[in-house]
Design goal:
Helix 4 packs antiparallel against helix 8, helix 13 packs across helix 14 and helix 20 crosses helix 22. This protein folds into four domains: 196 residues, 2-Layer Sandwich (Beta-Lactamase); 106 residues, Beta-Lactamase (2-Layer Sandwich), CATH 3.30.450; 172 residues, Rossmann fold, CATH 3.40.50; 127 residues, Helicase, Ruva Protein, domain 3 (Orthogonal Bundle), CATH 1.10.8. Strand 6 and strand 7 form a beta hairpin. The radius of gyration is 31 Å and the shape is globular. Helix content is 45%, strand content 18%. The N and C termini lie far apart (68 Å). The chain has 27 helices and 21 strands. The strands form six sheets. The chain has a five-stranded antiparallel β-sheet with strand order 2-1-5-4-3, with helices on both faces. By secondary structure, the protein is α/β, with parallel strands linked by helices.
């Protein structure tokens, strides 16, 4: 281990035999500028500062000391120390054998010393804080030489909200390293956490009881009250009717045990309130699923959060409100986007960065790459996440109607106009996001009107005169090269610059082949569940076949092909023969035809697209993500008519 440490310290080389967690901790230590050759701690609290810290952590110390003494009882005389630190890594309490305490003083491993990674590099206390999980660090796994003679085991102590409030550590001679040591520390830390939870619950019971009764009587929706750990404290009769369970089946259980929705993981762990989030409520162990709107609000006592109130409304009772926002809500987050390839990780980071600003975003990429998915994820990651997300396909709405869809119209604006007029998408999206898909298909006349909205932040309904201020973020998307469209005169340059503030280009599926098995596995599981099929066994060569295809239709085409394979397939296995012969037969017939496999696949994709759009070469070219002239050249090359 010493040799591996020297290899990194002196030559910057990380050997694969070093544990991954230690490798990452060494890299952080180096980045922090920690001197690996220090022989003792480098930062110490003043006595008054240590006293203030101990007062602040009085309750944690009061609960922890008896349990620390019990832990020390088992290792007494073996040269070990038991130590309690705060969440920053400052030692607050240390107990152990006299000889070992003296050795600890020699390296300033004493009460008041800071033992974070930033101060002392990789060590059990600091690395436990960095990772928020138990860890054992032995001998030269420590970054600084001061710790090399030691073996240390540390575990975090959390409050009921899941925040680290302290670290329990046990340190001793390096030659006495044993995995059971870490297990003892983890068990004691868990016991401390449990005691803290009991005290917190007892403290809040009196207030909660009166609060629960009053709240139950005043709500007209389904209601759940949970504590900060997610345990259900109170429900009402309307909720029981919605989910088909009685109060005794709910109270005392964690909310994540009752519902299968990931949303409840977010509700119980997040400090952020949720406002009217639409979801299909899935009751664990039941086929019952109800479309609802969920709202969560924090419950506070003396400015401290003690729980959350969840209200659940059946969707049919709030349909009028949903219609007000055109039924559009962003449901996808970045966690839902499947892909781990370098290109996808890069574009995710770009999109997350875009979400943190309020600037307009232009998503570009071939058809089927998921531009609408990224638009929803950007919205849900932004500060506008609780406001409307309105999507409109600029290529799917007739040009004459697009203006009224976007800007609305007044009563009598045109023949057939609804009495009283109607608001447009910009008004309905107030405070939120409007997603303009296929922006490249928008006419020049409409581009002028859109540019005016972007410049003035206001709209005027068709046939009206009243100016309506709008606060809307624009996310536009296209599979066209807008710079080329600008050169051709079919897209306004000034509008392009207004939209292209933050450009995000999505890679085609053929450029991220490593993601194809991941996406396929995701879709297969979803589709099998949708069609009521048992979990399917997928042969490795099935994924290999998918990776060899060019995927001109990208992720959308992959999903459609898998759906076809699952619907037509028999049994519980998927293999290459389940894939469409017209597309994947090229893998086996290319050699016979004298064509490379890649060319045969391109030819099959070409034929499929032309047939799909009944000879409309412009639409076929857009579907393939190529220009019409390129389409003609490929048709000539492969003899397609």
């Amino acid at each position: 281990m010493r040799e591996l440490w020297e290899d990194f310290v002196y030559r910057g080389h990380l050997n694969e035999s070093v544990k991954q967690e230690i490798q990452e901790a060494w890299l952080r230590s180096k980045q922090y500028g920690v001197n690996p050759h220090v022989q003792s701690g480098t930062k110490m609290l003043l006595p008054a500062e240590l006293e203030d810290l101990r007062k602040k952590k009085k309750e944690l110390l009061h609960i922890s000391l008896p349990l620390m003494e019990n832990l020390y009882f088992f290792v007494k005389g073996s040269g070990f120390l038991v130590i309690l630190c705060d969440e920053k890594g400052f030692l607050m309490e240390a107990m152990g054998d006299e000889e070992t305490l003296e050795q600890a003083k020699n390296i300033s491993f004493v009460e008041g010393a800071l033992w974070s990674e930033e101060a002392m590099g990789a060590n059990a206390i600091g690395t436990c804080i960095a990772l928020d999980k138990p860890i054992q660090v032995w001998a030269s796994e420590h970054y600084t030489e001061a710790c090399h003679p030691w073996t240390c085991s540390a575990a975090p102590i959390h409050d009921s909200a899941g925040e680290i409030i302290g670290i329990l550590n046990m340190s001793g001679p390096g030659e006495k390293v044993h995995p059971h040591t870490l297990g003892m520390v983890v068990s004691t830390a868990a016991a401390i956490e449990k005691q803290l939870q009991i005290i917190e619950k007892t403290r809040g019971n009196a207030v909660m009881k009166s609060l629960l009764e009053a709240t139950t009587d005043t709500l007209s929706e389904g209601m759940i009250i949970v504590d900060t750990a997610g345990e259900i404290l109170k429900t009402n009769e309307i909720l029981h009717r919605i989910i088909g369970k009685k109060e005794h089946e709910l109270v005392g259980k964690n909310i994540r045990e009752i519902f299968d929705n990931e949303l409840f993981q977010e509700i119980s762990s997040s400090r952020v309130n949720i406002l009217d989030r639409e979801t299909k409520l899935k009751v664990t162990g039941s086929q019952r699923q109800v479309q609802v709107l969920i709202t969560s609000k924090g419950i506070f006592q003396n400015k401290k959060k003690i729980g959350k109130l969840l209200t659940i409304k059946e969707i049919h009772k709030v349909r009028q409100m949903i219609n007000k926002f055109s039924g559009n809500q962003a449901k996808v987050t970045f966690r839902d986007i499947v892909g781990e390839s370098e290109k996808v990780r890069k574009v995710k980071l770009e999109a997350i960065a875009a979400a943190s600003s309020d600037s307009n975003v232009l998503l570009t990429g071939e058809s089927g790459t998921g531009k609408d998915i990224f638009a929803q994820a950007i919205h849900n990651e932004s500060d506008r996440r609780y406001k409307p997300f309105i999507a409109i396909n600029c290529g799917g709405v007739p040009r004459d109607l697009l203006g009224s869809e976007l800007f609305g119209y007044e009563d009598g604006a045109f023949t057939g106009a609804r009495r009283g007029g109607t608001p447009g998408k910009f008004e309905l999206a107030e405070g939120g996001t409007i997603f303009l898909d296929e922006i490249g298909e928008m006419s020049l006349e409409m581009q002028v009107l859109l540019l005016r909205v972007l410049q003035d932040k206001e709209v005027v309904r068709i046939g009206g005169h009243k100016i309506v201020p709008v606060n809307v973020r624009i996310i536009a998307a296209t599979n066209k090269n807008l710079r080329e469209e600008v050169k051709k005169g079919s897209f306004r340059e000034d509008l392009f610059f207004r939209l292209n503030v933050i450009p995000v280009t999505l890679p085609p599926l053929r450029e991220r082949p490593d993601d194809i098995p991941r996406l396929a596995k995701y879709f297969i599981e979803k589709l099998a569940m949708r069609f009521g099929k048992a979990p399917l066994e997928v042969k490795p060569d099935f994924y290999e076949s998918l990776q060899r295809y060019e995927w001109p239709g990208n992720v959308r085409e992959l999903q459609n092909i898998l759906e076809r394979a699952i619907v037509k397939g028999t049994g519980n296995k998927l293999c290459p023969k389940d894939l469409p012969e017209d597309l994947f037969g090229g893998f086996f017939t290319a050699a016979e035809k004298g064509l490379p496999v890649k060319d045969e696949i391109k030819k099959q994709a070409l034929v499929q697209s032309i047939e799909m759009f009944k000879g409309n070469y412009s639409r076929a070219a857009r579907h393939l993500g190529i220009s019409r002239s390129t389409l003609y050249r490929q048709m000539e090359r492969y003899g397609v008519r």
